[in-house]
Amino acid sequence: MIEGLPVEVNQTSLRNPLLMKESISSSVPAAEEIDYVFYSNVIPRKGVEKFLDFAQTAKEKSCLIIGGRISPHEDYYANVRARAKLIGVKVISDATLSERSKLLSGCKLHLFPSTYPSEAFPLCAIESMSRSALDVM
Q1: Quick check: 99 and 74 in contact, CB under 8 A?
Q2: Backbone angles phi and psi of 19, in degrees to 5
Q3: HSE (side-chain half, CA atoms, 13 Å) at 114
Q4: pLDDT of amino acid 26
Q5: Handedness of CA 130, 131, 136, 137 (dihedral sign)
Q6: Integer Cα distance of 121 and 9 in angstroms
Q7: What's the DSSP call for residue 17?
Q8: Partner residues linked to 134 by β-bridges
Q9: pLDDT by position in tens, the chain (length 137)
């Protein structure tokens, strides 16, 4: 159990991208092909719905979600993946640090429209800015 989170989280089911060791390079698109990235945990109020709304209007641009699922939000994550697939947005749930670095350094914008109630300054924004991505929050 992780203390301090607004929901109960089972640490054994946490697929934290920072802890990923195996490469998924076969499913990672070339960085120069990505226009807009959403990078965060895929949980309610982190803004992934707004990102998908935007992606639906930006049909000529490539959009990517980098984010993992966290228990107890597996159903929410599955719905996000299904909607993303319908509109042509790729979802990568277990990118390694080097793969994330490559994708964030090559994207045009990191969009992070979070309305999460306890959001301070998100680490995903710091990580994307350290890779020269322009953050829009």
Answers
A1: no
A2: -100, 0
A3: 20
A4: 52
A5: negative
A6: 21
A7: G
A8: 109
A9: 444 444 444 444 444 444 444 444 556 666 667 899 999 989 899 999 999 999 999 988 899 999 877 778 889 999 999 999 999 999 998 888 888 888 888 888 999 988 888 877 888 888 888 888 888 88
Residue 27: per-residue pLDDT? 60
**What residues form DSSP beta bridges with 135?**
110
**Structure-token match 């995903």, residue found:** 124
Position 24, amino acid: I
CA nearest neighbour of 100 among 76, 70, 133: 133
Q: How many CB atoms lie within 10 A of CB 127?
A: 18
Helices (H), the chain: 48-57, 74-86, 97-106, 123-130
Here the tokens at position 76 are 């929410």
Integer Cα distance of 104 and 9 in angstroms = 27
Q: Name the maximum alpha-carbon separation found in the chain.
A: 42
Say what the pLDDT of residue 114 is.
Answer: 87
Cβ count within 10 A of residue 24: 13
